[in-house]
Amino acid sequence: MSSNINVLTLAYLGDSIYELYVREKLIKDGIVKVNLLSKEAINYVSAKAQAKFLLLLINNDILSEDEISVVKRARNHKGKSNPKNTDVLTYKHATGLEALIGYLYLENKKERIDELMNHILGGNLC
What we know:
The chain is mainly alpha-helical. 71% of the residues lie in helices and 0% in strands. Helix 1 packs across helix 5 (88-106).
């Protein structure tokens, strides 16, 4: 089902799920001031951070072939929007990670999202 959905739509959904994981982690870490939460979240939710995490997932052979396929579809999508605070390649990699999360969510693969987010948020990437 979700393989037929536009990759930018998957990224739109994945962005919100990804950010929810990040916010939950920061709150569980004991950060309670909203300004500090926002500041710390940037370390995970910026396009630059998301691109870095995606490349680490790929380079550490954590993603399956199907997952890499979704990432590539999103990364190679010919979008009309220009990124504001980053270069195009970084933006496309970030979109790939967001699309992957959205895809996994719609496929009801919450455990897999948990695994990937544990790698990202738990610092399990070398």
